[in-house]
Amino acid sequence: MIYDSTYVISESSTTAAMPQGVMMLNKNGLEIAVNPGEISLAEKNSQLSPAEQSSQIFKAPLKEPLKEPLKSTAQSLPEVTVKSELDINPSPAANDSPISFKLDLLELDSGQIAEIAAKPTISILGLGYVGAVSAACFSHRGHSVIGVDPDVEKIATLNRGESPIVEEGLADLLDNARRVGRLEAICEPRKAVMESDITMVCVGTPAGPDGECDLKYLRMAAEQIGSALAVKDDYHVVVFRSTVPPKTTRDILIPILEKASGKFSGRDFGVCFNPEFLRESSAIKDFYEPPKIVIGAVDQRSSAAVAELYKGLSGELIETTIEAAEFVKYIDNTWHGLKVGFGNEVGRLCKAMGVDSHQVMNIFVKDTKLNLSPYYLRPGFAFGGSCLPKDTRGIMNLAADNSVSTPLIDSILNSNDRHIEHALSMITACKVKRIGIVGLTFKAHTDDMRESPLLELVRQLRERGHDIRYFDPNVASEDLLKMGVERQLSYSRCLNIEQLVNTTDMLVVGHNTDYGRGAAHLAEGFMPVVDLVGLGNSFKYAKNCQGICW
Q1: pTM
Q2: What integer pLDDT is reported at residue 118 of this predicted model?
Q3: What domains can you pick out in the chain, each with its CATH number?
């Protein structure tokens, strides 16, 4: 038999050494493995015993063996040709001729084969919905995957290449993973960690009777991984994907890993939080076309290793803190729930008034500039102006007139009022009398003071006896009088930010503008500043500055 093919041996993305171990299987059942100086080919047949399988292994020396590991350089990788005649029939018939064996590698070209050889092995603890989908998709992307679950029936199902859950496309991916030998399901977490480079934890975090997240399975997984890391020399990356409350990873899981392993995260092993955004019934599509890829990590080495797993996917890669990565999953789901509830309340009201709700919402979602955008989703101060408060009350009245219950919509103005009260408590806690306010209009770059939350804040502060001074270049004293604001406040107008800072004992910034930032800089270091708009990181960490949402 003649094996004649060309391989490109690629460097590992995580180590400088030449990758070893299984490259992949071809359609004819040959296992292809790369080792220094040789390529081995073995018949993979589940019907054979381990001894019989080993007897089927044939090794072919590389034409030009690599004597040293490949280094991480930008130079072209060597192309190595394997050509070796292997006699598998010691007594061939006279009319037998050598067989030319084409390596049909499941629609992968040589470059992709090389990439597969360099991919790290992934172990996945928990083979439920997220774990099974992740195992199938990562194996399809060329990774060797070791799945772990205590359910022996689930293990048997996966090892047969069958899906343990109903999910479109999953059975085909799992069957392919079985045929090419890139997915193994076992019950031993320790073995999986020892034989892999990256461990993903996808165990369940069910809600307890009190609604709190039950972390018992995560704690157990962290303990199991840590005990394996205790005897593992290689740098290993632990990736948590289970939805958890913020700070769970840093405050609970990392200490368990460190105690069980006797090692330190960020030095001896890596830890990341990588939330999943897989929707049931479209999970495969969501994996390959994610809305975003979020990685929170203890160190850059870990983050880079996990980022490499998603290389080539369409979603934006976002590297952040572990806590932010944990939080975003909760916020995503809450937002989705909010949208569903909002849509349903609109639907009930439309029906009561004889309006087609689907037409209304189909038009509504066409607006991606305001309605479906980041525009109104940045934490800051309360809303005001001539539209939002008025129209929210209007739809509340419509609902009441038509006997339609809209508790979500009804809560919007109440939530807005609570935000003003929160700002009020932050300011009064500073226990100063003279307060400077930057901005009076409902937002910057306008002269509109209708239902301005800043003006309401000023009114409540004055009721409590505070001396208020303000600066707003778009507001004149006569404007306040026209609004029916008492004359005393109109006399409290400062001509510039210097006057404002010099005549008050604390500063409240209500406009994110050049003059707002300028006033905060002037006040920095010697008087308290309450930031209602998000002035930026230079103020976020200033000792005298506190933000309403940061």
Answers
A1: 0.69
A2: 67
A3: 2-106 (no CATH), 119-320 (3.40.50.720), 331-377 (no CATH), 416-547 (3.40.50.720)
